[in-house]
Design brief:
There is one protein chain. By secondary structure, this protein is mostly helical. It has 14 helices and 3 strands. It has helices at residues 2-12, 15-29, 34-72, 82-91, 96-116, 126-142, 147-177, 189-202, 224-243, 245-252, 257-296, 315-335, 348-395, 406-425; strands at 121-123, 183-184, 302-305. Helix 3 runs parallel beside helix 9 (224-243) and helix 12 packs parallel to helix 13.
Length: 426
């Protein structure tokens, strides 16, 4: 068990190492030269780490923004955190071993399904699988499962999600990328498909967010990073002013709190730049390397990668999606408590990564109008599901807790509403 835990905690949950090892295997199976194998493996590792570095910069900037937002607008409620649930499950409920084995079980089921069905997707976002393993283990345990049955059921449920979600999203991913070289491996796909459905109803596909024509004096805004900065800088500064100088000084130190907010907004843009650079480097190496695995282990396999791989295809839609999802989540924060549900505070990280991807989906299906309207609906939707999950968590002893990533929330609700009642009836 110690060896399994070491592998899970130090290798499989380190997505950069996992993807680099997959690239190494793919290149080796193609019998590339030692130099090509080393080069391709290292560039894959480097690309993913550059992508992760960009994500880290964005996370730090948005963590600051989330704090001044809560203070500035006086919002008190539940902040969704799957990390906190994972920690409590491992330390308080002593489910660490079961989570680790369920994690491996999901991988195995994913490969089996991909090998023997027409769903040829290999889910490569290791951290997302860890969160899925956490949710299926926690809810499976409270449904009465234990031991092998807990791990097997969790592996089957998680494995189906790991293959099914990329398969469901692939027709739209194909529209976005123009090929089947990659798939989307991000457990927010239920929300993306909801967004696409709304965009289909209200949108106009003929007018894309990427075709926006600006007057000559404003053509500089066609630059992705300048346009992102134009949105984020006022947003940060205004929010910091509402939070006030005393609260802002806790973060800014000797720097004026408004200037610090400005610099944090610029850091956000820096994070986007680094992230997109990593995406380009990663895709240049992982797709050719993955072809070797596809030919040998899972014929015609398609790598399902994390959501930032789609950002370069529609950068304007990413910005629109972030803003629209944030608006929708703020509306839901005020409206849902009127129906007896918990107040869920907007999660800026989810709003950027999931919201940005939702914007790309909305634009692909319904153009710029679809992207705007559907991402507001997306923000409401991804707030509603965690609010519904609070009720189940409260019954299980997780007071004022809920999770993000609507696919993992959907899996948890599947346990709470369907699997658990069936098991208790039996």
């Amino acid at each position: 068990m110690g060896v399994v835990n070491f592998i899970v905690q130090n290798i499989l949950t380190q997505a950069s190492i996992t993807i680099a090892l997959i690239a190494l295997l793919g290149l080796a199976l193609q019998r590339k030269s030692a130099g090509d194998v080393i080069s391709g493996t290292f560039k894959t590792l480097l690309g993913f780490l550059v992508l992760s570095a960009g994500s880290g910069i964005i996370v730090l900037s948005l963590t600051y923004f989330g704090k001044i937002f809560s203070k500035g607008f006086g919002m008190q409620g539940i902040v969704p955190s799957i990390e906190a649930i994972n920690g409590q499950a491992m330390n308080t409920l002593h489910l660490g071993n079961s989570i680790a084995l369920t994690f491996l079980s999901i991988f195995v089921v994913n490969i089996i399904i991909a090998r023997f069905t027409r769903w040829k997707y290999i889910f490569l976002t290791g951290q997302a699988i860890l969160w899925m393993a956490t949710m299926t283990t926690v809810f499976g345990s409270f449904a009465g499962l234990s031991g092998i049955s807990l791990i097997v059921v969790g592996g089957i449920v998680g494995g189906i999600f790991a293959v099914g979600m990329p398969a469901i999203a692939q027709p739209i991913v194909r529209m976005i990328t123009g090929s089947d070289d990659i798939a989307l491996g991000h457990f927010c796909t239920v929300g993306y498909m909801f967004t696409a459905g709304v965009a289909k109803l209200v949108g106009d596909k003929s007018k894309s967010t990427e075709d926006l024509k600006l007057p000559k004096g404003f053509e500089f805004l066609q630059d992705t990073y300048l346009s992102v900065g134009l949105v984020m800088i006022p947003l940060y500064i205004i929010t910091a002013i509402f939070a006030g100088p005393k609260f802002g000084a806790q973060f800014s130190g000797n720097v004026n709190y408004v200037v610090y907010a400005f610099l944090q907004a610029v850091q956000f843009v820096v994070g986007v730049y680094v992230l997109l650079s990593g995406v380009r480097l990663l895709l240049g190496e992982i797709v050719p390397a993955f072809r070797g695995i596809a030919l040998k282990i899972v014929p015609d396999a398609i790598p399902a990668l994390d959501c930032p791989v789609l950002f370069p295809y529609a950068p304007n839609a990413v910005t629109i999606g972030f803003i629209g999802t944030t608006i929708g989540s703020v509306l839901a924060m005020f409206i849902l408590p009127r129906f007896g549900l918990a107040m869920i505070l907007p999660g800026m990280l989810t709003n950027f990564f999931a919201g940005g991807t939702a914007g790309i989906f909305g634009n692909a299906v319904g153009g710029r109008r679809g992207a705007v309207i559907a991402t507001i609906a997306h923000g409401f939707f991804i707030t509603l599901l965690p609010a519904l999950l609070v009720v189940s968590f409260n019954k299980m002893g997780f007071i004022n807790a809920t999770a993000t990533d609507v696919d993992t929330v959907t899996a948890a609700l599947l346990y709470a509403w369907i699997i658990s009642p069936i098991l208790k009836a039996i």
